[in-house]
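dude i think i finally got it to work??
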Amino acid sequence: MEPHVSHSVADGVATVVVNHPAKRNAMTADMWRSLPPLLAALAADPAVRVLVLTGEGGTFCAGADISSLRGSSELAQDLAVRAEDALAAFPGPTLAVVRGHCVGGGCQLAAACDLRFADEGASFGVTPARLGIVYPSSSTRRLVSLVGPATAKYLLFSGELIDAERALRSGLVDEVLPGGELDKRVAEFTRTLVSRSRLTQAAAKEFADGRTDRDAYWAEQARAGGDTAEGVAAFLERRRPHFTWTAPSAPSAAVPASPPPAGPWHPAPPTAG
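look at this
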């Protein structure tokens, strides 16, 4: 089977799967290119409340399939950053589910998700220093926002892999589960997310990501949307709430209009992909 990115939608959850198991799910140029339009389509689907990103089989993503990227390194960088930015811009909650290697471009994608749950055997690495290339400024800022400057520098300066427990302590990962419990926990958590107010989640995601010009917009949405009244009524009546708010026009997860930062891309080292 050709390397590809597949998806399915069930019970409000879109599951996007990186599928290139022959090379530890390393990303080809075509796979990077396919992500932004796929994410845009899922963002526009009213049936999708939550997005899960994972890898086929026992690994998440070992970076770039270097053999498929013999052309311009700047073009390869553009493809990766555009995919990362589209994932970060997805309007609903996003969750990376990590097993095995999460390295290079794979770690870049995981960091672009809102949350990351990992198998206890997972390993993480940001590896440009192994190849003498420059990590994108937007990706660096995103990494720093998760783990802080010191840990980001440790990862970037050394290119070393860290285990799931250290990733948890650093803030790169939100939960670490034994292998047999990861799928159960993800299913439980995504059901919880689907049951919560989309209004609250959408506003919280914008605010947490640093947007400061939409307070009035979200206040108006809260007044007009009905979720607040429904949540209070359900609490007083001791029943589950039935939230109904939907965005008047959902933000697009398409490729940003402005070009991503230029510079050489950071494929995974040969040992990781």
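The beta strands are 4-10, 13-19, 50-55, 94-98, 101-103, 115-119, 123-125, 162-163, 175-177.
im so relieved honestly
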